[in-house]
Amino acid sequence: MKNQSKRKIAIITGGSSGLGYAIAEKFVANEIYTILIGRNEKNLKNASENLGALSSYIVFDVTSLQDIPQLVTKVITSYGCIDILVNNAGINLKKDFVDVTDDEFQHIILTNLTAVFSLSREVSKYMLSNQKGTIINISSMASQYGIPKVMAYTASKSGIEGMTRAMAVELSPFGIRINCIAPGFIATDMSAKALNNDPERKNKVLSRTPMGKLGAPADVGDLAYFLASDQAKFITGTVIPVDGGNSIGF
Ligand code: NAP
Predict the structure, then answer these.
(1) How far is the CA of 190 from the centre of ligand 1 (A)?
(2) What is the whole-number distance in angstroms between the Cα of residue 17 and the centre of ligand 1?
(3) Which residues are catalytic?
(4) What is the position in ligand 1's atom list of the atom closest to the CA of 90?
(5) Which pTM was predicted?
């Protein structure tokens, strides 16, 4: 689909499930054409069908760094432009620090951080030529305070927050805004895996969340849409929690 109208075009990595899907729903509901990226074709196809005519998908593993320039070229050739990039794809590993192997650590960093760097760099080259665009990264409460058993994940998400600020100072003078959403504990497959068999951890999460519950994926979708919209035209380089107060809870 070549973009004949002035409709904005967004890419969302990990857009077929959880937070990525909720962001896609919000974008599509607001007339943004949304391209979902992920590894599982069946999930992507289902998600795209549910979202309707304003969405499509590309099967792509973000850890295939060498293929990222080609991916970005393909999107621009097929769809005409990229206005919004949401770096949402991510994986977690819950394990005691001393048991995490170097390979496991590297794999989390590759997926959650290096891929965000490479994809943002390639998309930014295009956005710079266009002198406009916006990038939204997704971090975590693991980069707001210490959480046990998520060493590699914490390192990756803390890196994302630093990169958000570094990208913002370099790119904002050229009309490109970069922001980061730090979700608290939101009900998705990922949080279910981390919390459902660990009542102590779940109680800890809820007890330090002033609003006393997990968030809904749409809570993150709402902020992502705001940050991507012109309503946020003077906002760049920020990290905004969507967490029911979890990051400031006692
Ligand atoms: P999720 O439901 O497990 O979704 C993760 C998505 O990432 C999936 O769609 C998956 O699609 C995609 N993905 C994973 N590895 C990929 C790869 N190598 N290449 C392309 N796509 C890949 O998790 P979620 O809870 O929605 O999390 C989304 C983001 O929010 C993550 O970055 C996570 O760290 C962050 N976050 C979540 C929470 C929470 O409470 N849920 C809190 C803080 C931060 P495929 O399997 O098809 O590849």
Answers:
(1) 7
(2) 7
(3) 153
(4) 32
(5) 0.98
102 is a domain residue: yes
**Residue 131 in domain:** yes
Q: CA 183, CA 219: separation in Å to the nearest integer?
A: 9
Q: Where are the alpha helices (DSSP H) in the chain?
A: 18-29, 41-51, 68-79, 102-109, 115-130, 151-171, 189-195, 199-207, 217-228
The reply to whether 202 falls in a domain is no
Whole-angstrom distance between the N-terminal and C-terminal Cα of the chain? 50
Distance from the alpha carbon of residue 88 to the mean position of ligand 1, in angstroms: 6
Read off the CATH number of the domain in which 126 is found: 3.40.50.720
Chunked in runs of 10, what are the mean pLDDT values of the chain (250 residues)? 76 98 98 98 98 98 98 97 98 98 98 99 98 98 97 98 98 98 97 94 97 98 99 98 97
Amino acid type, 149: K
Q: Which domain holds residue 35?
A: 9-186+216-242
